[in-house]
Design brief:
- This protein has one domain: P-loop containing nucleotide triphosphate hydrolases (Rossmann fold), CATH 3.40.50.
- Helix content is 52%, strand content 11%.
- The protein has eight helices and five strands; from the N terminus they run βαβααβααβααβα.
- α1 crosses α8, α3 packs antiparallel against α4 and α4 runs antiparallel to α5.
């Protein structure tokens, strides 16, 4: 498979976020896409996440700490991609964290006071964030997602339920509609995985469109 060239000078400005449900295949696509577009890849913190096992064991107790930890780590990744000037592919975007926080609150697993504090922190951080070039949303059903979670057999994920994933998917639909007003979203059916080159082509077109100079006359 041949690499898809980005427009001249665009590489350092190309920031691609990969979004989607737990287990849908974000990490796999991020790795392939990074190699395909010659961009560094920033994976979701899993192995070094100091709250992850506690969160899945006692979700209500650790929900707020977990969300603040992830927000901090993703903000760090987001800023590194911007300030290093090398571009990048990010495995789950900082914008998606609010989806998980909302579902936790709606499920009674995060206190409303903690949720409001989390949102305030997110909004304050957002003033310092440059927008990605595009977000690739991997669209797959909760049923497909839970099958993939079970097949990768991470012990701490055994408590993830289909109802939880369905609630997440509902919020993702709202998220995609809202975020697409300010950031280009490439929605990809991911039930059977997909063609990395085709996605890279679509991203390249978005990069070209973002760099198009529009003149106006007053």
């Amino acid at each position: 498979m041949s690499k898809v060239p980005l427009p001249p000078g665009a590489r350092g400005n190309t920031f691609i976020g990969i979004a989607g449900l737990i287990g849908v295949g974000k990490s796999t696509l991020a790795t392939k896409l990074g190699a395909h577009l010659d961009l560094p890849v920033h994976h979701e913190p899993v192995d070094d996440n100091v709250y992850l096992k506690d969160f899945y064991a006692e979700t209500a107790k650790w929900a707020f700490a977990m969300q603040v930890y992830l927000l901090n780590r993703r903000f760090q990744q987001h800023q590194e991609i911007i300030w290093r000037g090398l571009g990048g592919v990010q495995d789950r975007t900082i914008y998606e964290d609010s989806i998980f926080a909302k579902v936790l609150r709606d499920s009674g697993l995060m206190h409303p006071r903690d949720y409001e504090t989390y949102l305030s922190l997110f909004h304050n951080l957002s003033h310092f964030m440059c927008r990605p070039t595009a977000i690739v949303y991997l669209d797959a059903s909760p049923e497909t997602s839970i099958e993939r979670i079970q097949s990768r057999a991470r012990g701490f994920e055994t408590g993830i339920t289909l109802d939880y994933l369905r609630n997440l998917q509902k919020e993702y639909e709202v998220f995609v509609e809202d975020i697409s007003r300010i950031i280009p979203v490439i929605r990809v059916s991911w039930e059977q995985f997909g063609d990395t080159e085709a996605i890279a082509d679509a991203i390249t077109r978005e990069v070209e469109r973002a760099r198009y100079l529009r003149d106006i006359k007053l």
